[in-house]
Design goal:
Number of strands: 7
Strand order of the largest sheet: 2-1-3-7-6
CATH superfamily of the largest domain: Type I PLP-dependent aspartate aminotransferase-like (Major domain)
Structural class: alpha/beta
Shape: globular
CATH topology of the largest domain: Aspartate Aminotransferase, domain 2
CATH architecture of the largest domain: 3-Layer(aba) Sandwich
Oligomer: single chain
Helix content: 25-40%
Largest sheet: 5 strands, mixed
CATH class of the largest domain: Alpha Beta
Strand content: 15-25%
Length: 210
C-alpha cells in the first residue's frame, strides 16, 4: 500500500515548473549574485532581481519590500526581533496564540525572558481557531503591538479567520493566500512565507492609539 502523505501544509514536492525554471541556475549560471566583478555574478544578480519583481507582482507589493531569506524561521525571527528592537521594551507587546509554530513561540518566549516585553499567547477553541474577543482584549492597550498568527496550521489544518481578525488589529494592507487574488483578502504589515508553503505565516503590526 502506498504512503498517504497528509503534511503538505508543512512541505510539499517541488513543482516541475519551478524545477525547470531553476535548472539553468543550478547547472550553468551558478555565479554568486552578490559578486559584481564578473559576468556570472552580473547574470545571477539580474536573475535574483527578476525573481524579486515577480514575487512583488504576485503579492501585490513593491520590489523593495521583498526580502529573500533562507527560510520561514529566519523570516519570522527577523520580523519579530525587528519589532522588539533594542529599547523601549516596556512600551511594546507581542500577541500570538498557544498553537503557533515553534518558530514563533520559541523566539517570543526567549525575548520575553531577555527583555521582559509583554507576551500574550491566546488560547484557541476546540477547532484551533483564535477568538476575536480574545484578540480585542489583548489589543486593549496603549502599547505598540505585534500580532503574529499562523494563517494555516501545519499540524491540525486549521485556517484562521484572518479576514475577521485583521480589522481589529488595524493593519494597513491586505495580503495572504496562494494566488494573487487571494493574497488581497487579509490585512497585514509583515508577511513571511516560503516557496513551498505560501502565506503560512501572517504578521500584523499595530500601533495602539493613546
Amino acid at each position: 500500500m502506498p504512503d498517504l502523505y497528509l503534511d503538505y501544509n508543512s512541505t510539499s514536492p517541488l513543482d516541475p515548473r519551478v524545477r525547470a525554471a531553476m535548472q539553468p541556475w543550478l547547472e550553468d549560471e551558478w555565479g554568486n549574485a552578490s559578486t559584481r566583478e564578473y559576468r556570472m555574478g552580473w547574470t545571477a544578480s539580474e536573475a535574483v532581481e527578476e525573481a524579486r519583481d515577480a514575487v512583488a507582482e504576485f503579492v501585490g507589493g513593491k520590489s523593495d519590500q521583498i526580502v529573500f531569506t533562507s527560510g520561514g524561521t529566519e523570516s519570522i525571527c527577523a520580523a519579530i526581533k525587528s519589532f522588539v528592537g533594542y529599547a523601549n521594551w516596556e512600551e511594546s507587546k507581542i500577541v500570538t496564540c498557544a498553537t503557533e509554530h515553534a518558530a514563533v513561540l520559541a523566539p517570543c518566549k526567549r525575548l520575553q525572558e531577555l527583555t521582559k516585553i509583554e507576551l500574550t499567547a491566546m488560547s484557541v477553541d476546540r477547532h484551533g481557531l483564535c477568538k476575536l474577543d480574545d484578540l480585542r482584549r489583548a489589543l486593549d492597550t496603549t502599547k505598540r503591538c505585534l500580532v503574529v498568527i499562523m494563517a494555516a496550521n501545519n499540524e491540525i489544518g486549521t485556517i484562521q479567520p484572518v479576514e475577521e481578525l485583521g480589522p481589529s488589529v488595524g493593519a494597513r494592507h491586505l495580503l495572504t493566500g496562494s494566488r494573487r487574488s487571494d493574497l488581497l483578502l487579509f490585512q497585514r504589515d509583515l508577511l513571511c512565507f516560503g516557496c513551498r508553503e505560501t502565506s503560512k505565516e501572517i504578521h500584523y503590526a499595530k500601533i495602539a492609539s493613546e
